[in-house]
Design brief:
The complex is a heterodimer of chains A (about 90) and B (about 160). Chain A has about 90 residues and is mainly alpha-helical. Chain A is about 65% helix and about 0% strand. Chain B is globular and about 50 Å long. Classes of the chains: A mainly alpha (about 90), B alpha+beta (about 160).
């Protein structure tokens, strides 16, 4: 998770022009870091490329909008990174 | 091309689903009201319409790859470079390659060439969403047939 976090934090910092020190494992990508939906497309593209995955953003967004999961589960950095690790592991399996 | 109707692509010349590329023919008209203002006495295809041409060619590629089940809407244009003037009557080829088919978005590397010379390029991002209504999907399918998107790409 730690190397995933470093990679994702670096992507967000560079893509969204957010100081790296502001990004912590407990940061919420939207509520705390203020990443809007267009910037998040850039972030998603960079993450997909970096990890060779396809983050299921539509499914995550639908689940949040339907209230079946909280946005924290997908968009707090440590949880986002855990989900990325899961996707990477599933791809390797 | 019918500039005033935003019909930028005349014909899909080649669509390769393995390489995820498209090549489209786009003939700049000799006359158009657009040229009356851009520019008086010195008609040039506006740069924004060169970008639109790349975006539409890439859009046809995404539509075809997704078999017209979802609609790409232009979301972002990066690193757009307009490398040469384009004049009335000029023949263009728009060439696009799908860089990434993401969840709810897609990214395309687009370019325009003319006479073997690159005249524009850009990286284009689309939001890819369900068709907002069946009328739009039907219209896109009709237009796809007009511009010769191969029939095999029009449905599952």
């Amino acid at each position: 998770m730690s190397s995933t976090f470093e990679t994702v934090a670096g992507i967000i910092s560079e893509t969204c022009d957010i100081p790296r020190e502001k990004i912590t494992p407990d940061s919420h990508a939207i509520n705390d870091l203020g990443i809007d939906s267009l910037d998040f497309l850039d972030v998603a593209f960079a993450i997909d490329k970096a990890f060779g995955i396809k983050m299921p953003l539509e499914q995550w967004t639908q689940e949040v909008n339907e209230g079946t999961v909280s946005s924290e589960q997908y968009f707090v950095m440590k949880d986002l990174c855990a989900n990325i690790d899961t996707l990477v592991a599933a791809k390797a399996a | 091309m019918r500039l005033e109707y935003f019909q930028m692509v005349d014909r899909i010349a080649e669509l390769d689903p393995v390489a995820r590329t498209v090549c489209a023919d786009c003939q700049v008209p000799e006359t158009s009201p657009v040229f009356e203002g851009h520019f008086p006495g010195h008609p040039l295809l506006p740069g924004v319409l060169m970008i639109e041409t790349m975006a539409q060619a890439g859009g046809w590629l995404i539509l075809a790859m997704l078999r017209f089940q979802r609609m790409p809407f232009l979301a972002q244009v990066k690193e757009a470079k307009l490398r040469a003037f384009v004049v009335p009557g000029q023949a263009l080829q728009a060439q696009c390659r799908l860089l990434h088919d993401g969840s709810g978005y897609a990214v395309v590397a687009g370019g325009i060439a003319s006479g073997g010379r690159k005249v524009a390029d850009a990286e284009i991002t689309y939001r890819v969403v369900p068709f907002p209504n069946e009328a739009l999907r039907a219209q896109m399918l009709a237009t796809a047939r007009r511009v010769a998107v191969p029939e095999a790409f029009l449905h599952d």
